[in-house]
């Protein structure tokens, strides 16, 4: 049995769990609730993952895998016929580019939330995050038709999880009105069984 250091609040963990569901591997993964944050470095996790971050996947032989994209590719490969990571070539580069956009958006949103939680957040930092968020949503709106037309892969997983995290933490954001194509794509993403099975269960 593999062991996944896990939190239902983490978009990176959710990305891993979506892949696990897509690959039919959830019955081989024990979820270990683990809390880490900038102010809570997860000291108990450091011997396993010196970065002190989740997700961390501990294999049956004790090997620890991190970060989330490494775990995702490992799980996809266990399915016997990888579905989410294309083989080397243009399709793989495109999938990884999309993954980088979704993953970077998750990073940005987590840092944005951390800054907003300070007693005196830096307005310049918040304005910078807001500008980047607007740029990401505009880029994804342009890309939405291609996201729908290409096979479901790791890029779509990362982008979909990033948008879902935006909904989870900022339900008032109202991004759909100005991004109808992206909203329609995300509706389809949200209907996938793997996505519904990993919906956030707490706040």
Distance between the termini: 28 Å
Largest sheet: 4 strands, mixed
Oligomer: single chain
**Rg estimate, integer Å:** 17 Å
pLDDT averaged over residues: 93
- Strand segment tally: 4
Percent strand equals 5-15%
The structural class is alpha+beta
Strands in their spatial order, largest beta sheet: 2-1-3-4
- SS summary, helix count: 7
Order of helices and strands: EHEEEHHHHHH
In the predicted model, the low-confidence regions spanning at least 5 consecutive residues are none
Shape estimate = globular
Percent range for helical residues?
A: 40-55%
Q: What descriptive keywords fit this protein?
A:
globular; 7 helices; 203 residues; alpha+beta
Question: Would you mind describing this structure in some detail?
Answer:
The chain is an alpha+beta fold and 203 residues long. The chain is built from seven helices and four strands. The protein has helices at residues 11-22, 68-78, 90-116, 123-149, 154-169, 180-190, 193-196; strands at residues 2-6, 29-33, 56-58, 64-65. Strands 2-1-3-4 form a four-stranded mixed sheet. The longest helix is centred in the middle third of the chain and has 27 residues, at 90-116. The model has no long low-confidence stretch (mean pLDDT 93).
List the helices and strands and how they pair.
Elements: E1 2-6, H1 11-22, E2 29-33, E3 56-58, E4 64-65, H2 68-78, H3 90-116, H4 123-149, H5 154-169, H6 180-190, H7 193-196
Summary, kept brief:
The chain has 203 residues and is of the alpha+beta class. The protein has 7 helices and 4 strands, in the order E-H-E-E-E-H-H-H-H-H-H. Strands 2-1-3-4 form a 4-stranded mixed β-sheet.
